[in-house]
Amino acid sequence: MPPVRPVQPSFADLFTPKLVTVLREGYGSRDLRTDAIAGLTVAIVALPLSMAIAIASGATPDKGLITAIIGGLIISALGGSRFQIGGPAGAFIPLVASTIAIHGHDGLVIATFMAGLMLIAVGLLRLGNYIKYIPYPVTVGFTSGIAVIIFVAQVRDLLGLGLAGREPPEVLHKLPVLWAALPTVNGFAIGVTLVSLGLILGLRRFRPAWPGFLIAVVAGSVAAALAHWPVETIGSRFGALPSGIAWHGLPGLSLGRIRELLVPAIAIALLGGIESLLSAVVADGMTGRRHRSNCELVAQGIANMASALFGGLPVTGTIARTATNVRAGARGPVAGVLHAVFLFIVLAFAGALMAYVPLATLAAVLAVVAWNMAEKREFWSLMRASRGDAVVLLAAFLLTVFVDLTAGIGVGIVLGALLFMHRMAEAIQVETEMPVVDEDVADSSHRHPAFDPAIASDKDILVYRLSGAFFFGAAGTVGAVFDRLGRMPRIFVLDMAGVPFLDTTGAYTLETFAHKLERAGTTMIIAGANPSVAKALGHFGLREPRILMTETVETAMVAADARLALGEA
């Protein structure tokens, strides 16, 4: 009976937004009320976070709100996850800050638009599943590195330091500047910081259901305004926020500009894809649902393009806000759409009030975000796991902190791949066994004679067994074993039942050895090769009638005995 092949999903199956799926299943007024409550809850969390992330990224706070509104709307309406909340993310802070510092805000807009196009292409090419192959030490390394960068970036506002101009985005250049500015510490700013941190951490401990971030922002704003504390606020540094969203477009677009911004665009697309799919996986784990990764990437791409056209920041799925959405009882993507609507209402009717928010309070919010983002337990566990994992982790972490995110991810992935190949190459085993003479059994016995290669009998037949993935990293090891063969037997049996994968280098190694056996007059039998391995062998001519192919090593031994008896080998 031929094997049953799984039905391949259609384009509609892969790219239908979850919003459409939820509405098809039936959506009533009770669902709408539940999603409205969840959307309002998420908006309360997203409001201070979006502004804080924008300020830390070197942009104005309204850019964060614009990003949350557009990202939240499009990702929830078109995405492949029921519960994903889109918007600006803390993970983007160092990347956005460096892009703005080098290329200006207009450069960030173009890079974000290009990243959106890349994400759409990755989704349509159905490459979303491959993002999950990024090694875990790399993910922990660059996430912890980003947390360090975010915290260092908040030191200025946490302490109220008086810096002339914009501080450099690189950590190595930032630290001396902050150290030199320590004499300008503002005691009132430190007071606001401590009050804000106390409220956030205290509410998290004793009233975890309350919106700690928003309460801290409101309390800090009211206290600073009523007491007339001399601390920097959103209004004193950035002026009044606009009361709407204005079209920005793509400024100064040219081929040279596109080439110049290609690397930042790739970094934004890569980080956005990783972050959004990680967030979708977290939501799946909390709800038991399954997201459509490629549909999600297409939605992320469209959201980034739209955010860029309105002058916003890069958009991605946000893990903390998505988890908040799930805990608030969201039924589907309508909650994310409503969260964007609530944020737009705040921007339109209460944007002027945002001018009173102390920057020290927003810095305290991001300091807590950085602490939560740093995967401390996972970091130390990986440091103790193995030397290879520790090297990959530290490379991704240190390069992210002291060079940039692109270097951290790129070098980490390369080192992780090399470590994987080294481990796989070491895992392959080449066992040299001789054929057997099975013990005598009664004629009435129904026991099938088993092939036990531990017992030697016939020097005319030599049996080798390969176990493990046979790829280019293991080809040298296997080839060296074959090269050490002394006198060639009349029949050589290669048991490949334990080989799950064979690449072209491994197949070429076997073809070279087969040619050597042919010159010596030795017959080669390959046993137990699975269909994919047999196909790879066939591409290099290792198929019948040149060699014999059998399903098991037992049938190979029967064929070998028959050939010896007939004098054909």
Characterize the structure shown.
With 569 residues, the protein is mainly alpha-helical. The chain folds into two domains: 26-419, no CATH class; 428-438 and 449-566, 2-Layer Sandwich (Transcription Regulator spoIIAA), CATH 3.30.750.24. 63% of the residues lie in helices and 6% in strands. It contains 23 helices and seven strands. Strands 3-4-5-6-7 form a five-stranded mixed beta sheet. The chain has a two-stranded antiparallel ribbon with strand order 1-2. The chain is elongated. Mean pLDDT is 87; it is low at 435-441 and 443-457. This is SulP family inorganic anion transporter. It is a multi-pass membrane protein. It comes from Phreatobacter stygius.
Shape: elongated
State which percent range the strand residues make up.
5-15%
Compute the gyration radius: what is it?
A: 31 Å
Number of strands: 7
Count of the separate structural domains: 2
Name the poorly predicted regions.
435-441, 443-457
Q: Pairing-aware structural class of the strands and helices?
A: mainly alpha
Number of helices: 23
Percent helix range? 55-70%
N-to-C span: 34 Å
Sequence of secondary-structure elements: HHHHEHHHHHHHHHEHHHHHHEEHEHEHEH
Give the averaged pLDDT, no decimals. Answer: 87
The profile of the biggest β sheet is: 5 strands, mixed
Q: Biggest sheet: strands side by side, in what order?
A: 3-4-5-6-7
